[in-house]
Design brief:
This protein is α/β, with parallel strands linked by helices. 34% of the residues lie in helices and 27% in strands.
Length: 208
């Protein structure tokens, strides 16, 4: 499946319904999700691999990995409501007759309580706007569970990149690449004062 086809499919999946601001439940844009997944697949980290998605939300990254040939996908979130949306999205792609050869499991769990091992982790954790360093537990758990990690974080320029790099190295990992992206956030909550706001984010490719 090429990147454009994947983007079209992901755009048809339902976003998180009634997102919680405290959990920063922003649905990843379909084009961004497709780009990250396509990059990971070209790097040999999805097809025939075991893939985890931490903070999976409506399941775009997890389902995208399944569509690209992952052997097994585990999608983890603390909110049972968003997992219900993710399962509906899975049923949608099945009803559409799209071919998948692997399996997917949705797990409700707090990140600090989750355990498991996988080949690849692709995650879009909370950016830490509402709660500082909310993404840290996701990154630490990813380093504990996965060999290759694709993790999206809010860009704080050199300060944030230095912090994340030191955290990764302190856990025995290595940041191989940092790729900048734009993450558009629509008006979802009362404190949003614009119809849309573009957030600068970085995708970290990490070897653990």
């Amino acid at each position: 499946m090429d990147k454009k086809h994947l983007e079209i499919i992901l755009s048809k999946l339902k976003p998180v319904e009634n997102p919680k601001p405290t959990l920063e439940q922003y649905t990843i844009p379909s084009d961004l999700a497709a780009d990250i997944l396509h990059f990971a697949n070209l790097s040999g980290d999805i097809e025939d691999k075991i893939v985890f998605d931490f903070g999976c939300g409506s399941g775009r990254l997890a389902i995208g990995a399944l569509l690209l040939g992952a052997k097994e996908v585990v999608a983890v979130d603390v909110d049972h409501k968003v997992l219900e949306v993710a399962e509906k999205n899975l049923h949608f792609i099945i009803d559409e007759g799209l071919s998948v050869k692997g399996s997917i499991k949705f797990v409700r769990a707090d990140m600090k309580d989750f355990s498991g091992k996988c080949d690849t982790i692709i995650q879009n954790p909370p950016f830490g706007i509402q709660k500082e360093h909310a993404d840290r537990i996701f990154l630490e758990k990813a380093l504990e569970c996965g060999k290759r990690i694709y993790s999206l974080h809010k860009d704080g320029y050199d300060k944030t990149r230095e912090f994340i790099t030191k955290l990764v190295e302190g856990k025995g990992g290595k940041v191989e690449k940092i790729l900048p992206y734009t993450f558009p956030i629509p008006h979802l909550f009362k404190f949003h004062d614009k119809p849309k706001k573009d957030i600068s984010v970085d995708l970290y490719l990490i070897e653990s």
